[in-house]
Structure formats: C-alpha cells, structure tokens
Amino acid sequence: MKQKFNIIKSTCVPLPLENVDTDQIIPARFLKATDKKGFGENLFRDWRYNEDGSLKEDFVLNDPTYGGCILVAGKNFGSGSSREHAAWAIAGYGFRVVISSFFADIHKNNELNNFVLPVVVSEDFLAELFTSIAADPKMEVEVDLPCQTVTNKATGRSERFEINGYKKHCLMNGLDDIDYLIQNKDKIEQWEKCNK
C-alpha cells in the first residue's frame, strides 16, 4: 500500500451521501482481522451486496459507468467509531484520494497513515464535482500534492487544500511513521548522545 504521491489524475466514483460513518465503510463484523489484506472487497459491504452475496446493481461501486482511484464523498465522511479498518478498506479497494467537504478527524488521520489522501474542499466545490461527474462520468480530477491543489478538469476550477507538513513529506516519499524514524536514525542517535 505504500506508494509515493505526486500528482494524481483520475476519473471519480461519486458517493453524494452525508454522514457516512465507519460502520457503513466497513461493518463491525469484519473487524476481527488484524491483517490489512482483503478489506477492499468488503468496502461498503452492506450497500454493495445483498444478503445472499449477490451484487446490488444500483450501488455506485457496482456500476461500470464509474471508476478511478478518487472517491468523491459527501460532507462528514468517516464519522463514528475510530476503527482504522475503514481506511484499510478504502486503500484496499484501490482509492488513493477521498474528496469531501469535511472528514472526521480520526478517520482523516487513519487515511493519511494508510497512504490515502483526504482532500477537504468547500461545499460549493464539492457540489460542482458531483454535477460534473453526473454530466460526464469520464471527467477527471487532478490532485497535485506538491502544490496542494485539486482541479476539476471539466470546468478548470481549482481549490487549494491543507495538509500537515509531516504527512505531506511522508506521502510524497512513500514513508510510514516507522520508515521516517529509521530514515532519521542517525539524527536521533546524535541527539541522544548530546543530551545524556
């Protein structure tokens, strides 16, 4: 799942629902596993599948019209419990970016820790994205992490997004927290030596 981020340009999967919580992202019955593998197939499980395991054809992830590695979601995405499994499922499905006008803080950090970039945009820009995707499901969005901009390629409109400088560095270099510490081992050892 560790992939360096730079500029991502992709079509989008629209999920224009507000208050999507982590139990809807990955139901609690799948939380027994401690390995990240296999969670993508259960992303939005109860919305994607009928009780007999067949696909619900009217759900957006089952609609071949939409695809790409960017999920565009409604306001207040990732609310509810703090389960990291929700971010595992999003990453496991193949999403690299989630765009919303608001994320629950813990979920936002879980996404960053799992190499999924949460991009916060204005409600107006989010509404425009949904309109553009509905008009042309093949339209693309460009997310430029170095410049911290997101651009609706259908309209040319861009917005700047915020990201913690440390997390930006880690994403751009494909580093998790442990990798970052190992990369700075000499500096840490030097500091310890000087501060005994």
UniProtKB/TrEMBL annotation:
InterPro entries documented for this protein: 3-IsopropMal_deHydase_ssu, Aconitase/3IPM_dehydase_swvl, AconitaseA/IPMdHydase_ssu_swvl, IPMI_Swivel, LeuD
GO molecular function, one term: 3-isopropylmalate dehydratase activity
Pathway assignment: Amino-acid biosynthesis; L-leucine biosynthesis; L-leucine from 3-methyl-2-oxobutanoate: step 2/4
Superkingdom field: Bacteria
Catalysed reactions, as listed in the record: (2R,3S)-3-isopropylmalate = (2S)-2-isopropylmalate
EC number: 4.2.1.33
Residue ranges annotated for the Aconitase A/isopropylmalate dehydratase small subunit swivel domain, each copy included: 3-123
Transmembrane segments: none
Sorted UniProt keywords: Amino-acid biosynthesis, Branched-chain amino acid biosynthesis, Leucine biosynthesis, Lyase
Family: Belongs to the LeuD family. LeuD type 1 subfamily.
Role summary: Catalyzes the isomerization between 2-isopropylmalate and 3-isopropylmalate, via the formation of 2-isopropylmaleate.
PANTHER family, per the entry: 3-ISOPROPYLMALATE DEHYDRATASE SMALL SUBUNIT, 3-ISOPROPYLMALATE DEHYDRATASE SMALL SUBUNIT 2-RELATED-RELATED
Annotated protein name in UniProt: 3-isopropylmalate dehydratase
Species of the source: Xylanibacter rodentium
Taxonomic classification: Bacteria, Pseudomonadati, Bacteroidota, Bacteroidia, Bacteroidales
Gene name, Swiss-Prot/TrEMBL: leuD
